[in-house]
Amino acid sequence: MRIGLAYTLGFVAANVLVFGADAPEPSKYTGPGSCSSPSCHGGVQARGETSVLQNEYSTWVVRDKHAHSFINLTNPVGLRMAKIMGLPKPDAAPRCLACHALDVPVDMRARTFDLTDGVGCENCHGPASAWLGPHTTRDWKYEKSLDLGMYNTRNLVKRSEKCLTCHLGTAEKFVDHELIAAGHPDLYFELDSFMSVMPPHWKDVDKDPWLGVRSLGVGQAVQLREQLKRIARESQGGIWPEYAELDCFACHHSLTAAKDSWRQERGYPGRRPGNPPWNLSRFVVFRHVIQEADPGASGQLNSQVDKVYALVTALGSDRKEIAAEALSASQVADGLAQKLDAMRFDQAMTLRLLKSISTDAEAIAAQGERSAEQATMAVDSLFIAYSKNEHLANEAQIKTAIHGLFEQVEDPSAYNGFKFAASMKSLNAMFQ
User: Fold this and answer.
1) What proportion of the chain, given as a percentage, has pLDDT over 70?
2) CA 172 to CA 400: how far, in whole Å?
3) In 3-state terms, what secondary structure has residue 87?
4) Distance CA 123, CA 274 (A)
5) Lowest mean pLDDT among 9-13, 21-25, 298-302, 312-316
6) CA torsion sign, 323 to 325 to 328 to 334?
7) Which are the contacts of 319, defined by CB distance < 8 A and separation ≥ 6?
8) Residue predicted with more confidence, 313 or 8
């Protein structure tokens, strides 16, 4: 591979400064332009004979929605949100830039860095100046780049964590009920589904034929862990309950006559009528994954999540107790994330998961639209993985049924739990 512009920029950016001893300068962010040389990642077409596609930058800048994240701050909705929030300029507000750009301290920005690039290479791969030049040399190993500050996106736990810093949030980056009320979309996530709709700019190094199933399992574990940690933080903060943690559509749904209300017909088991329940969408699928992966841990986590659900849904619970229970459950979820990343799934396990999730149709549907949405994404991902490795005579029929589930969650306020449960049961019969 020719070294090209990226090597020149990287070599200059990574040049060593001496601070008393031979300590290197901390790695800086160089911006996606430093990866754009046609001989590096800016090619027009993907190449098969090299270790990377070499059109990664081109794919990102033309097809990836992340490249438009900064521009979206100043579209009509973004400007209206800023007005509601009392922010003079959304494209200069740290709260918005935290996820819509790479808002790092000035002393970590190289000369080539440009905030307006939006969510680019280094949002996911880490500051590049230390490894940008060296990683283009012959026989350079990925592990050497990791030692120089590259983020390990090949590790599924770390990949999930990185995605979730924005797609769920951290203590510094968050979408709360105030921001949602101003117009920001509610956040949801499913690792394998999200990866499958991204324009691919990578080659899978992991040759596991059931990588999609493992990705789903790990992603479910990490998002539950991070949600529980978020609840522990928020319950100790100034505003509680934080309504973004609850089931949005328990309140935000189309109003109908009482005789036509599936929610009132279902009732409100386990909670006082009128109390919005904790959003369990990050657990309804995962409970089936852990039953497959670790039945012993399954019972423990189920019990802990039930406690958190009861405390959060009650609204007037002791905040310290909420935090303690949530943190305890998050530790179990963390252990399961590590275990799932080391597991090897197969055809039989994947089919059992498809059957288990679709068998649980009534309980999932009753939890509301977000849970139904999560289950739909999961069965879609699982079936895609299954059908790659095993042909089913009724494959077209199953695909049509899954498409029908997606249609039912397109308009959240019009979601009907009984209808969704019936459709999921019909899908379950196709797996027999």
Assistant:
1) 94
2) 41
3) coil
4) 41
5) 9-13
6) negative
7) 235, 236, 240
8) 313
Burial class (CB in 10 A: 0-12, 13-18, 19+), 171: exposed
Give the sign of the dihedral formed by CA 410, CA 411, CA 415, CA 419: negative
Q: What is the rounded distance in angstroms from the CA atom of residue 363 to the CA atom of residue 361?
A: 6
Is the peptide bond preceding residue 241 cis, with omega within 30 degrees of 0?
A: yes
Residue 139 phi, psi (nearest 5) = 65, 15
- Give 278's strand partners: 246
146 contacts: CB under 8 Å, gap ≥ 6: 152
Alpha-carbon distances of 149 from 30, 238, 403, rounded to whole Å: 13, 36, 42
Convert the pLDDT of each residue in 164-174 to its tens digit.
999 999 999 99
> From the centroid of its chain, how far is CA 381?
14
Q: What are residue 303's phi and psi, to 5 degrees? A: -65, -40
The answer to whether the Cα torsion of 165, 166, 171, 177 is positive or negative is negative
d(CA 279, CA 374): 11
Its sign, for the CA torsion 329, 335, 339, 341, is positive
Question: 52-82 burial by CB neighbour count: b if 16+ within 10 A, else e?
Answer: ebbbbbbbbbeebebbebbeebeeeebeebb
Give the whole-angstrom CA distance, residue 396 versus residue 424.
Answer: 16
Type of residue found at 98: A
For residue 288, give both structure tokens. Answer: 């089936």
**Per-residue model confidence as pLDDT tens digits over 110-134:** 999 999 999 999 999 999 999 999 9
**Per-residue confidence at 35, pLDDT binned at 50, 70, 90?**
very high
Residue identified by tokens 């046609």 is: 38
For the residues of 214-262, what is the DSSP string, one character each? HHHHHHHHHHHHHHHHHHHHHHTSSS-S-GGGB-GGGTSS----GGG-H
Distance set, CA 113 to CA 94, 228, 429 (Å) = 17, 35, 54
As a 3-state breakdown, the chain gives helix, strand, coil percent values, each rounded to 5, of 60, 0, 40
Contact by Cβ (8 Å): 212, 347: no
Q: Which residue type sits at 336?
A: L
Give, for 324, the enclosing helix (H) or strand (E). helix 319-342
Residue whose token pair is 């990664």: 56
Helix 395-408 vs helix 417-430: crossing angle, to nearest 10: 170
Query: Phi, psi (5° rounding) for residue 210?
Result: -110, 30
pTM higher than the cut 0.85: yes
Is the distance from CB of 200 to CB of 229 less than 8 angstroms?
A: no
353: which residues sit within 8 A by CB, 6+ positions away? 213, 288, 289, 292, 382
